[in-house]
Design goal:
Elements (H helix, E strand, L loop, with lengths): L1 E5 L4 E5 L3 E5 L6 H7 L8 H15 L3 E4 L12 H15 L4 E3 L23 E3 L2 E4 L13 E4 L4 E6 L5 E11 L18 E4 L9 E2 H6 L4 H5 L6 E4 L4 E4 L10
Parallel strand pairs: 3-4, 4-5, 7-8, 8-11, 9-12
Antiparallel strand pairs: 1-2, 2-3, 6-7, 9-10, 10-11, 10-13, 13-14
Length: 251
């Protein structure tokens, strides 16, 4: 397996027989939700879509895999999404074949996808690797495979000695504890033992990696082992184990 990182995304290429471009959590339409909460921003859909198209040109993949939360508003579609989503998906499919693993924000997205594009919400295998959004227990089909997931928006925050902070989207590679899957996984199959969490493509979506352990909010994060979890920057720079960049605040 060959990995190639694109910090312009963040986006990741996983290459075996196929060259797959992996993108998670675009959250198109997020501006409409922010407006409801009193934060008014011009839609950045055009800029976000243009950025995605540039990465597709750079990566030259065989297929685009979207790990869910393509849209933002729940439980339905906002007017912004109703107008923009068809254009977004048609622009992408005119450039490249795509597969979409719907996330918890993707209510109704199946009406805008071709049958061949829509993938199971609990994941499936593409070219030897397991993919899903990450808000559900994985399908038994993913047993024994690397599981690549979105949903968690991992973000690393670093502070210096005077309190100045910077933050950056990161990948998290973590081992999963079989015992924590509980009854959700059949006794006759081996659950996924390794997960790679992909950062959000949306530039304003992020969640501190410490909180992923302190307040886990998905079956995946509840099964992750803190010890041995590794951090990788969006450009592929290997940072090291979680313990090397974070104080022990999650215990």
């Amino acid at each position: 397996m060959k990995l190639e990182f694109f910090s312009e995304g963040p986006a990741l290429v996983i290459e075996r027989e196929l060259r797959l471009l992996i993108v998670a959590d675009l959250h198109f339409g997020i501006e409409a939700d922010l407006a409801i909460h009193g934060l008014h921003f011009k839609s950045r859909t055009s800029e976000r879509l243009e950025r995605l198209m540039k990465i597709i040109d750079l990566a030259e993949p065989d297929m685009l895999v979207l790990l869910g939360d393509v849209k933002h508003c729940i439980p339905s579609l906002s007017r912004q999404e109703y107008l923009e989503l068809p254009v977004i998906l048609e622009t992408i499919r005119n450039r490249i074949p795509l597969k979409v693993f719907p996330g918890n924000h993707d209510t109704g997205i199946e009406h805008y996808l071709l049958e061949s594009e829509l993938q199971p919400r609990d994941g499936t295998i593409i070219d030897g690797t397991g993919y899903l959004h990450g808000h559900m227990y994985p399908s038994p089909e993913l047993s024994g495979h690397l599981m690549v997931a979105g949903h968690h928006h991992p973000l690393l925050q670093l502070k210096d000695e005077v309190g100045c902070a910077t933050q950056a989207p990161v990948y998290m590679r973590a081992c999963l504890e079989k015992e924590r899957w509980g009854k959700a996984i059949s006794k006759t199959c081996t659950p996924p033992s390794l997960a790679l969490l992909v950062p959000a493509f949306n530039e304003i979506a992020g969640y501190n990696i410490l909180q992923i352990f302190k307040k886990p909010f998905s079956p995946v994060s509840r099964c992750m082992k803190k010890e041995g979890t590794e951090i990788i920057l969006a450009d592929g720079t290997y940072i090291g184990p979680l313990s090397s960049v974070c104080s022990d605040e999650t215990d």
